[in-house]
Design goal:
Layout lengths: L1 E9 L2 E10 L5 E5 L6 H8 L7 E5 L5 E4 L11 H6 L4 H14 L5 H20 L5 H11 L4 H4 L8 H15 L3 E5 L7 H12 L4 E5 L3 H7 L2 E5 L6 E5 L2 H38 L5 H20 L25 E8 L8 E8 L4 E5 L6 H8 L7 E6 L5 E4 L12 H4 L7 H10 L16 H13 L5 E5 L7 H12 L4 E5 L3 H7 L3 E4 L4 E4 L2 H10 L6 H4 L1
Helix pairs in contact: 3-4, 10-11, 16-17
């Protein structure tokens, strides 16, 4: 794949400016760059969903498969049919049979055409592993833990997480030459993630992946493509994400050294020019020197290295508007299950302390997000009570981002009577929205940008309880660090479900609720990593009690 002289702008915002890159046939490439640099846009161009203003990307007619961040499948077919349609083997076999039936009754001249067409179809069938395909699909389903009863369901009836898993399985089965994966690990449990990681490491074709999951990137990629939001250029580095960070850091140090040297030279020339302008008219030598140095000064200013954008954040005042009671939230003897399902929890009880940061952990399917919805009164317990304490106020970040109005601008979405326009824009700067960004409509934003708007809106409400459900799903590592700092400074009570150990540690979690047992323990780093990186059976209480 080759990108040549790419240029793209959305209005006054330049995305690529004479950008170029080259990727080899079996490269596994991680695409990195700050939010808004043009990572997902690059995928859309490759897929011909977006057009460049100038330049071109050539893929040599390779077959491309794409896994987007947001899976929207509304097909009214069963899951198995949807999966098998990724390899049109039956259609090709039918077409081949039709050709063979025609051959005996066809003149010699036309027979040659039909035989050539048959050869092409057979080559296509061979590339789709005609006789091994079903075994390959069964292996993918087994390793991704997709149960047989799910295969009989209609695709449109699947949950969001199920759709993501099925879409991923279909792409692996498709056997494309090029895979484009946008945040592929968002909805994967660790066993499935381990399988996917090994599968992609050994994949026969090219992979381009956008992911905030550093461990995943370091495991599978052999090259890193960096899209620079400042220069609008693209550069491909050899090595995984860790190696890229090292090479980039060295590059930036050299760039800063060169820029400092250039600035010293410019300052020296400015002083000479200033002295020449102040010299008397009769001092021709100084005047001539000044003129030559003025031309050199202009040249040096044009050659000056462009400074990399550094996001400036300020310490946000995130004190709640009023303190809650010492016990802002209490759950007593809670029992809950969905219709015709087993209990998720039975007789679950716990208390929150004012100001603590509380993490809910447990294997997938134990009801972590469901518990948050029960706390928010979006679901009703079968038994038990959830009680808010004195003066409790609450804000809730859900993965679905219902709190945003898609038809309003970013600034309109976070509008808050407690702050003036300048303060609101300062807060948005802390969530990486600057200058005219704040006037963009929410509906044109990427999932990661929408998540940042929602988190900013929640924090500036200054409630004394904040509930976060997987807040970093769409964030690259650099964005995550900046957003994490904002919640680290929050002085109210924080309840969180997160799959992201580095974010959890940055925010400063103090206690953990382990589901489904309902044990509350002091924060333990190794237990967090146990759930999200090993995904084996729950440890017994004596190990982490």
């Amino acid at each position: 794949m080759k990108g040549e002289h790419l240029y793209l702008a959305f209005g006054s915002e330049t995305i690529y400016d004479d950008a170029e890159f080259k990727i080899e046939e079996k490269d596994k490439v991680g695409i990195t760059g700050v939010n808004g640099a043009g990572k997902t846009t690059l995928f859309k161009i490759i897929l011909k969903q977006e057009r460049l203003d100038a330049g071109k990307i050539t893929t040599n007619n390779k077959k491309i498969a794409y896994l987007p961040q947001e899976i929207k499948i509304e097909d009214n077919i069963d899951v198995l049919t949807y999966l098998m349609s990724a390899r049109p083997i039956k259609k090709l076999e039918q077409k081949l049979n039709e050709i063979y039936e025609k051959l005996p009754n066809t003149i010699e001249k036309d027979q040659k055409k039909l035989l050539k067409e048959a050869e092409q179809i057979q080559n296509k069938l061979d590339s789709l592993h005609q006789y091994q395909a079903e075994d390959e699909l069964l292996s993918i389903l087994e390793n991704m833990q997709i149960e047989s009863d799910l295969l009989e369901m209609k695709v449109k009836d699947l949950s969001g997480g199920q759709k993501s898993k099925i879409a991923f399985a279909r792409i692996l089965y498709e056997n494309a030459d090029i895979l484009l994966l946008d945040e592929p690990t968002n909805h994967l449990d660790m066993k499935t993630k381990d399988f996917i990681t090994n599968y992609l490491k050994n994949y026969h074709g090219m992979i381009l992946v956008i992911s905030h999951d550093i461990d995943f990137l370091n495991e599978i990629i052999t090259k890193t493509m960096f899209i620079n939001k400042v220069t609008h250029k693209i550069k491909v580095y050899k090595g995984n994400y860790k190696e890229f960070k090292r090479l980039y850091a060295v590059e930036m140090l050299e760039k800063e050294r060169k820029r400092a040297e250039q600035l010293r030279e410019i300052k020296h020339l400015e002083e000479i020019v200033k002295k020449s302008e102040q010299a008397s008219r009769t001092n021709h030598n100084i005047k001539r020197l000044g003129q030559s140095r003025k031309k050199l000064l202009e040249k040096k200013r044009n050659e000056l290295e462009e400074e990399e954008e550094k996001y400036k954040t300020v310490t946000m005042k995130v004190e709640p508007l009023e303190k809650s009671g010492k016990i802002p939230l209490e759950v007593e003897h809670l029992t809950f299950h969905y219709p015709n399902k087993n209990d998720l929890y039975r007789n679950l009880s716990f208390q929150m302390q004012r100001g603590e940061k509380f993490l809910i952990v447990g294997e997938n399917g134990v009801g972590k997000s469901t518990l948050l919805k029960l706390i928010m009164k979006q679901l009703t317990p079968i038994k038990g009570e959830i009680t808010y304490g004195y003066h409790a106020s609450i804000a809730y970040y859900a993965q679905e981002l219902e709190i945003l109005d898609e038809n309003k601008t970013i600034l309109e979405n976070i509008d808050n009577p407690n702050y003036n326009d300048l303060e609101l824009r300062t807060f948005l700067g802390n969530f990486l929205f600057s200058k005219d960004d704040v006037f963009k409509k929410v509906k044109v934003l990427s999932p990661g940008e929408k998540a940042r708007v929602a988190l900013c809106k929640i924090l500036i409400q200054r409630t004394n309880i904040i509930i976060l459900d997987e807040p970093t799903n769409h964030f690259d590592p650099e964005t995550q660090k900046i957003i994490g700092e904002n919640f680290k400074n929050y002085t109210g009570t924080l309840i969180m479900v997160s799959h992201n150990p580095s974010f959890v540690e940055q925010v400063g979690v103090t206690r953990m609720l382990v589901l489904p047992e309902g044990k509350i323990i002091e924060y333990k780093r190794e237990l967090l990593h146990y759930y999200y990186y090993l995904n084996t059976d729950l440890l017994e209480e004596e190990n982490y009690g």
